[in-house]
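Please produce the structure of this protein holding pyridoxal-5'-phosphate.
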Amino acid sequence: MSSLGPERLERLAAEYGTPLYVYDLDELRAAYADLSGALPTGSHLFYSLKANPHPPLVRELLDLGARAEVCSPSELDTALDSGADASACLYTGPAKTETELDHALARGVGLFSVDSPTDLARLGRCARRAGTAAKAILRLNPADYPRGAGLAMGGAPSQFGADVAWVREQPDRFRADGVELVGYHVYAGTNIDDVERLATWFEVALDAVRQAQEALRLRLEIIDLGGGFGHPYARPGTRPPWPGLAGRITEALGGFGGPPPVVAFESGRYLVCGCGALVVRVQDVKTSQGTRFVIADGGINALGGMQGLRRVPPIMAEALPAPGANGAGGSGAASRTVLAGPLCTALDLLNQRAELPGVRPGDLLVIPNVGAYGLTASLVAFLGRTAPAEVSVDARGVRSALRLDLRYGELPAARPDGGLTGDRGDRAEMR
Ligand SMILES: *Cc1c(COP(=O)(O)O)cnc(C)c1O
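Below is the modeled complex.
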């Protein structure tokens, strides 16, 4: 966290309240420069809004040259409202509905990733109805992904994409009126921090593309190799470098014949994880049957909702000394602590085995590297507490301060026949 020293965080917490997400835009810019610089020249780099749809971050990444990879109507609208060129957006997801495809086509999305013959045919129907021709890439599930890094999303039975063997056995099912398939999409894993392993994954992905292309013989415009660029999450650490990666990919791309396709990559985590920190304030410290509990004003409603799904390792909160009346905060040797949040459930634990120094009520704790999969990957609506403020800063000062607002909205009245009047009513408004 480059420009975010304890005093600055203390000031921001006092001004905006806690829990508080702080995003350092200088750090975001540096991460974008590092990743785009590690890819072959001319590559497209998509920002996956799933990692963090916070509009100021999206706007910044678009300004830097990223494209938007979205998988919901709300992510698409955020990207477009943040200045994305619709024709450069990629729309993905394994269960796209006609309603969302209609919306995406109406807004001018230029490229879809399709996951199956059903998905492809549905896109074709929607495009014909809209009087346009859609462009799509076919998501492949490779047969043989190397195991053992991050979350595998390939090389195993998967709801994502189509098995390469299926494509080879029934190539005719992978065509549809209204859609032109112009390439392939492979996204098979996430959070890989080793360049050798990542390069190997891309090589295997390209093998899968080669095998599918033998059967489909598309006019190959684009190969989206996905990503998997790792980053430490909710613990101290810095983004890994990718020495030699561009060369490895360029080499593996040889031999496709025809005009060389554009190569695309996607990243959420690597681009935004390091720029964000969550600041919480200690509300209580007590000992229960020999175990010390530190209870903060933000818990799994602000961070780590996905931890409950056992998909992320324990969160590590770093204690930050607080000046003023609680000046002794953060002092003394670290000791074993359960770090709990404010929710009325025993599940609201940010870390069951934290090592924290002596802290007192009023002290701040800072959890680093949570710019990705932070707030929107958490149980924001559970117990209905106000969402944390989100502030983005850079060397020039505070650049934006926003708060996510979740509340109920009235649906159009139901007609006696069970239909809905007016709007089709199947698009919940979340703002
Ligand atoms: C989740 C996802 C990403 C982003 O993954 P990161 O690990 O955040 O980089 C990119 N592409 C697809 C298709 C995804 O599902």
